[in-house]
Design goal:
Blueprint lengths: L2 H47 L10 H65 L3 H49 L15 H7 L15 H24 L7 H35 L7 H7 L5
């Protein structure tokens, strides 16, 4: 065999060997990949089947759940307190509206009565008909005035009750968030000091605030109507003249009526305060802090 004849064989042999080698390499790689995939699948199945501590929620997970529950409970409490606060504000607004409406109705009735008396006086020249008409009309006006005064006093006590409730809610806010206490300008206790702080009234003044309230205004008007009525009665049936008996008797009746209104209003306020002292627990007032620290409430 010549060299020329051997070359193809050699070349062919080498090529065949090369082909076998490449096939063996690719087959080995394929078998290696198949083994790796099988091992990965086995490991994955083993991880799925084997229960381990890594899959159990312990420690920090329980703490996170507890914190979440506390936050939800806190949010719920704040929502309930805020709803009650808005309810008290709405009820207080209704009390104020009723007070102004009652006072306006009384003053409107009084104005109409004065106009009617003026017309009757002009028609009768202040004669017997005028006196009779006044004696029939003024008691009606005075009765409405007294009812208005009593209702305004009750409305003031109701307003103090609603303010007491809002002070109690603010106490809950401060207990939940103590760092917010310096930002409240209103009271956080149910005692008189807390009410005065919410109403923005301070002790040590001249003490004339009670004379400029709406019930006091209605009381003064009632006293004036009562004085006129007493003067008319004294002139009609007691034979007193307009001067000087009428003004003297009328002035005395005015002072007497003012004193009656003042005593009635004062007693109503004191009865309400006494009821509050009995019904309000000590933890909602400044008494507990006074006993523990020996200082007066803010």
């Amino acid at each position: 065999m010549t060299a020329d004849e051997e070359a193809p064989g050699v070349v062919g042999g080498d090529g065949e060997r090369s082909g076998h080698t490449s096939n063996d390499a690719s087959g080995g790689v394929g078998r290696g990949l198949t083994a790796i995939e099988a091992a990965a699948d086995s490991a994955h199945m083993a991880m799925e089947r084997a229960p381990g501590p890594a899959l159990t929620h312990t420690g920090p997970m329980l703490s996170s759940d507890s914190d979440a529950n506390d936050a939800a409970h806190r949010s719920q409490r704040l929502q309930i307190l805020a709803t009650e606060h808005w309810s008290l504000l709405a009820t207080r607004s209704l009390s104020w509206n009723e007070s102004f409406s009652r006072a306006s109705m009384f003053l409107t009735l009084l104005s109409g009565a004065i106009v009617a008396l003026a017309l009757v006086a002009q028609a009768t020249s202040f004669g017997e008909g005028f006196v009779t008409f006044a004696l029939l009309l003024l008691p009606l006006v005075l009765g409405v005035g007294w009812a208005t005064f009593v209702r305004l006093g009750e409305a003031n006590n109701e307003d103090a009750y609603w303010v007491t409730g809002m002070n109690r809610l603010r106490k809950a806010y401060v207990e939940m968030e103590p760092e917010l206490a310096p930002y409240f300008v209103t009271g956080t206790t149910d005692d008189t000091a807390g009410l005065m702080r919410t109403y923005a009234t301070h002790p040590g003044g001249v003490g004339l605030h009670g004379l400029i309230t709406t019930p006091a205004t209605v009381g003064f008007v009632n006293s004036a109507v009562f004085a006129v009525l007493v003067a008319l009665v004294s002139m009609q049936w007691m034979g007193m003249g307009i001067l000087p008996g009428g003004p003297i008797v009328g002035g005395a009746a005015f002072l007497f009526s003012v004193a009656i209104h003042a005593v009635f209003g004062w007693r109503g306020m004191k009865e309400y305060e006494q009821h509050q002292l009995i019904s309000t627990p000590a933890e909602f007032t400044g008494a507990k802090r006074e006993r523990s620290t020996g200082t007066a409430p803010d």
